[in-house]
Amino acid sequence: MYVSSTRADAPLARPGSGRGVGVTGNVIALGMVSLVTDISSEMVTAVMPLYLVTGLGLTMLQFGFLDGLYSGVTVFLRLVGGHLADRFAARKPVAVVGYGMSAVAKLGLPLVGASVPGIGAVLAADRAGKGLRTAPRDALISLSGTPEAQGRAFGVHRALDTVGAFTGPLVAFTILAAVGTAYDAVFVVSFCVGMVAVAMLVLFVRDHRDPQEHRPGWRDGARLLRDRPYRRLCVVAAVLGLVTVSDAFVYLLLQHRLEIRPHWFPLLPLGTAGVYLVLALPLGRLADRIGRRRVFLAGHGALLAAYLFLGGPLGGVPLLLTVLALHGVFYAATDGVLSAAVGARLPAAGRAGGMAVVQTGQAVGRFASSMVFGALWTAWGPATAIRVLAVALAVALFGSTLALAGRRVRATRPTEVHDVR
């Protein structure tokens, strides 16, 4: 079985055993790169729903397709990026290409103007870059952190990443406040900031290279799926992704319910990002102590609560604050925690590819979710659509809890046992 039985798997066996800080300078450097990148990407993300729906007049069905494309185009490139990073032991170079593609794509938005096919192509190029870089980057974080503190390493990275996610909408809001609805200014500034992130990655992040490292092929990656706990994580990530409404739809639902004025719309992601920023590291540490599975599932419980509030009678500021807080808890409890749980099961040589498989399943689910939710909104209205997704998430969460209930699985050697909590 292609699963490491070394001490590197120890955090999954005993999540609370590590007491070291477990966060190296390379993790910090990767976090700073993500911070600057997220300023660039979130500037665009914050204004894109309003730009497409209000500015260009797209229907919710059209927006659902583009939003699904925004997530779904990364599907196969995640696998390609992870495989190339492992096959050639070139995690940093693959990440550089991915970050560069996303930065350059921002220049395409002012060039294509109001062309919906053109916008779709630019968004696809942007997400293609993300697809290439995500698995190699997460593998570098995992390999740069101590085995006992994978949750903390990813928690620190995601906290820094979220500082950028918090700052990006503020920058977009400031630009739009100065130039009105001249969205092109946001896109150009986003490109410049993205290129700064690429330079930081090249200059300050160290690759993880081992001359003796096994160079896995596609067959080695397929063998990973023989590991039952890893296979369960893949399936659960995909199923829960299928019932996860995209951020853009959450914010559009809030705007619809509360009649938020367009120029305030870019500030909605700040609520999610603020809670995520505060909780990313504490929940990463908690996952190391009590089990990553528990925290990951609890995060989806917070998302279910957000759905119920969005489809319920609560309104006004209480609804706004409650939904954004729960949305932030969801991300803090799931994003880095899932990567930490997966990374702890994988050998160094196959870590990027193994992470890519899980991320790909999740991306496929979210791609389908956006299109389905857009169709439901168009056919039945937003309130009914979110209630249907709430029921689907409740069922998926119950099934996922049962699927991950079995904690102990015997590994390669009869005397070794891994805990997949």
TrEMBL record:
Listed GO MF terms? transmembrane transporter activity
**Every Major facilitator superfamily (MFS) profile domain range:** 26-408
What PROSITE patterns does this protein's entry cite? MFS, SUGAR_TRANSPORT_1
Give the matching SUPFAM superfamilies: MFS general substrate transporter
**Gene3D superfamilies linked to this entry:** MFS general substrate transporter like domains
Q: What Pfam families does the record tag this protein with? A: MFS_1
> Quick one: where is this thing mainly located?
membrane
The family database entries (PANTHER family) matched by this protein are listed as: C-METHYLTRANSFERASE (PTHR23518), MAJOR FACILITATOR SUPERFAMILY TRANSPORTER (PTHR23518:SF2)
Instruction: Please give the name of this protein.
Output: MFS transporter
* Organism expressing this protein natively: Embleya scabrispora
